[in-house]
Design brief:
homodimer; about 325 residues; alpha/beta; Nitrilase/N-carbamoyl-D-aminoacid amidohydrolase; 6-stranded mixed beta sheet; 14 strands; about 20% helix; Aliph_Amidase/BUP (chains A, B); hydrolase activity, acting on carbon-nitrogen (but not peptide) bonds, in linear amides (chains A, B)
Chain lengths: ~325, ~325
């Protein structure tokens, strides 16, 4: 039986600060319709797809920012999106700011905030939830930045790990699906956690500024997109999976986010790429049988991975400098 | 003080099965001279640089293959190379097959074989030794391959971890250097082990067949080089390090190895690339200060890595399939 699914990346153009969810959701419904016309079984939206990228705005008291968050899915505002994916039998990845009332690590029930994504079945059921692990930026106002990036202020670090689920997509009975969010894609640890679960389709959304905002040298502007695609392509190749990276793009609240959403195959090849900075759908037929080659040969993990040599990856968080070699010392690394 | 070193990749053309080490070493000395004329402080040679890529040849009894290995460095055959790097004050990466007499894991002294590389100081002293961890291919003769790839037969898995050393190079007092060998470059775990030690220059040699030899579909020939560069570029970017990947290239014993040796900067950009399939030197001025940007911002490991979410990387070797989702079940990944 063939295992081909048609995947759509639904890139969003900018969402201005005062744009209502009703307008945004209407735009998303149009993109679902367009993805359906292109035969898609899966539609992937960006990170924080329902609002502007609000972590660029400093707030003193987070309780004043609750409007940016969702307390439930679906909600009256997002119901039309759920209706659309049900209508077209589509599986959907949606990124949003999550406001949850749940116990913290000490067992105390409280209001908690996460940068979250979900996989939604055509029925509207939530199949899988992920909360962003690699939050970039700062917790406090930064004086050296041109633009603030306050994800560490607005969100707690995700506490759900990197889950993968097998679920039906279109006619295919079982597709192994996992999620990343934005900055996660630069971290090979995140991809590997998914690869260890035989992921076949990694869905990830992002809001990435088109220029480095730290006023520091050595990074040409065009490398911003190169780094994004490099990380996605390497993650897909090294874990033998398809990947869909979806941008919120264009000039939002006066600041430019990069576009160039991509669909990548397990060989690391770009199958489709968005070329506007606006609402845009790209699609690709993904033959999941392609995941087998890498998984059973060069990246047959059981055959080739060597845990005894991976000593620092999970035993230390930060890096440490090596010893300085001295002439006439014993050879470092020799027995 | 500037921290600029000039790095040379000394690509080797093919070495035929019956070519003597004297001829090979003479070619390497020419490349050292050429690297010196280009102002190099460091010269990087390929994996198994002193012989043909012999793991393509099956032998029943490994003791019959001892001629492929080195028992000591320098040896009479390799002394001219050591003389050349001393003459020009150059630091050198050399890959070779190592025959060692040392205790195994059970404490018994025996003959052991490793796919090894060393960093040699201008004085001729061995600064650091590395033994290849990710051995590709098979231990036994494979009937499904066009060409054998018997590294798992010829070598034991490296037992020195992924060491990094700080040593002087040229006028720079302290350069953090690490090594990989061939297939290691495809494994983000290997790069990360080096990155955790603040590596600034990753040296790696390879012998990579120009076509996939497993008679299986889905991999266009041109992707072989793409995968190599993708892995090196991603490894450099994600660990904020320079990288030098050096090929043995061309048609060796009738089988083609890919070339396209590269020098890559911490932004993942290719600074220089070989374009012949023969002996060739490429050089690049590497400003080690470039490693700082990534290391202190987006890849500030201490600030951003989340060990508690890396649960599978070092707890399981092989991958395992995810659970199949059932409608109306609790949300996977939810609390």
């Amino acid at each position: 039986m063939t295992r081909i699914i048609t995947v759509a990346a639904a890139q969003l153009g900018p969402i201005q600060r005062n744009e209502g969810r009703d307008v945004v959701v209407a735009r998303m419904v149009r993109l679902v319709e367009k993805a359906h016309r292109h035969g898609a079984n899966v539609v992937v939206f960006p990170e924080l797809a329902l609002t502007t990228f609000f972590p660029r705005w400093y707030v003193e008291n987070l309780d004043d920012a609750d409007d940016w968050y969702e307390e439930a899915l679906p909600s009256p505002a997002t119901q039309p999106l759920f209706d659309a994916i049900r209508r077209y039998g589509m599986t959907c990845y949606l990124g949003y700011a999550e406001l949850a009332y749940e116990p913290d690590e000490t067992g105390i029930m409280r209001k908690r905030r996460f940068n979250t994504s979900v996989i939604i079945a055509p029925s509207g059921e939530i199949v899988l939830k992920y909360r962003k692990v690699h939050l970039p930026g700062d917790k406090e106002f930064s004086k050296i930045r041109n633009v603030q990036h306050l994800e560490k202020r607005y969100f707690e670090v995700g506490n759900l790990g990197f889950p993968v689920v097998a679920a039906p997509v279109g006619e295919v009975e079982r597709v192994n699906m996992g999620m990343l969010i934005c900055n996660d894609r630069r971290w090979p640890e995140a991809w590997r956690e998914l690869g260890m679960q035989q992921v076949e389709l990694v869905m990830l959304g992002y809001n990435t500024p088109a220029v480095n905002q730290e006023n520091r040298g050595f990074e040409a502007h065009h490398l911003r997109n190169f780094h994004s695609q490099l990380s996605i392509q390497a993650g897909c190749y090294q874990n033998a999976t398809f990947g869909v990276g979806v941008a919120k793009a264009g000039t939002e609240d006066g600041f430019t986010l990069m576009g160039h959403s991509v669909i990548v195959n397990p060989q690391g090849e770009v199958m489709a790429m968005a070329t506007s900075w606006d609402d845009e759908v790209i699609v690709a037929d993904c033959n999941l049988a392609m995941c087998e080659l890498g998984r059973t040969t060069i990246f047959n993990f059981a055959k080739h991975r060597r845990l005894e040599a991976y000593t620092r990856i999970t035993s230390q968080t930060g890096s440490s400098a090596p010893e300085l070699w001295q002439p006439n010392q014993a050879v470092t690394g020799a027995i």
